[in-house]
Amino acid sequence: MPKFLLDAQLPKRLKSLFDEFSFESIHTLDLPSKNSTSDRELIRISFEKKCIIVTKDNDFVESYLLSGKPEKLLLLSCGNVSNSTLEHLLRTNLRRLEVEFETNNFIEINQMDFVIHS
Known about the structure:
This protein has helices spanning about 15-20, 40-50, 60-65, 85-90, 95-100; strands at about 5, 25, 50-55, 75, 105-110, 115.
């Protein structure tokens, strides 16, 4: 079962959604440096704890494409949407994410598409 590491720009309440679906999750607010945790440290934690980084941050995309880090990445490219819209987007895709992350490392979700990047 996948584990998720939620980046700082995502609301902490999303952790409850992952919990509801019985997925282990960590939000940056759970870490010692909280939302000041660097991207480099998040990548290190994701490798150590075998977590998928969940982010809206394109810096992680660049790092993934250039160096393969993080190992697994979920990009939420839905712009500035309400927390409830973001929650709905994840809620409707979490089970599919569970299946797709078994064989894929980079998935992007927006309001229209579910994109598996190779």
